[in-house]
Amino acid sequence: MKERDERSPCSLCANMRRGILANSSKELGCGVIALGHHKDDAAETVLMNLFYGGRFKCFHPHLYMSRTGIRVIRPFVYVEERRIRLEAERLALPVISSCCPYGDKSKRKSTKEIVASLEKEIPELKSNIAHALRHLRENESWPKGMLNE
Question: Which segments of the protein form a coiled coil according to its record (predicted)?
C-alpha cells in the first residue's frame, strides 16, 4: 500500500471525512449533503488559501460532485458563527465540539485569531470577503507571467 504524502493531517482528515460522507449518503440513498460551514469558515478558508497556497479560492455554497452524483449545499455560508451559536443556545441545541488532537495548533485556529484581530479595525471583514467571492470574475485576475512564475 502506498503511503500518502499529505501536507498536514488536516488535509488527510478532510479528504477522509468527505469520502465517508459521500459513501454514507449513497448507501442511504441521499442525493444531497448539507454541511454546516458558515461565513467565518469561508473567510478563514479564503485567507488560508491566500497565505499558504497563494490563490484566492474557497469552497462553493452549492456544488454537484459528478463522481458520486451528490449535491453539497452549505445553507449557513452567509451567516456568522456567532449568530449560529446564539441561536443554538436559544433553542438549547446540543453543540458537538471538535475532538481533533491538532485543533489547538492548526493553521485554521491561527487564521481565526487573525480574523478576530482584523475585525477590531474592519468590523465588516467577513462580509467583504464573502462579497468578493460573489463578485470574482476571471477577467479581473492578473495575466500569467506577471510575477515571474
Answer: 108-135
Query: Is the residue at 95 inside a domain?
Result: yes
Q: How many structural domains is the chain composed of? A: 1
Residues in the chain: 149
Question: Each residue of 56-72: pLDDT tens digit?
Answer: 889 999 999 898 899 99
pTM assigned to the model: 0.82
| CA pair distance 145, 52, nearest whole angstrom | 20
Q: For residues 29 and 62, what is the distance between their CA atoms, to the nearest angstrom?
A: 19
Kindly state whether residue 88 falls inside one of the protein's structural domains. Answer: yes
Q: How far does CA 74 lie from the centroid of its chain?
A: 10
Beta strands in 15-65 (DSSP E): 32-34, 62-65
Backbone CA torsion sign across 14, 83, 24, 67 = negative
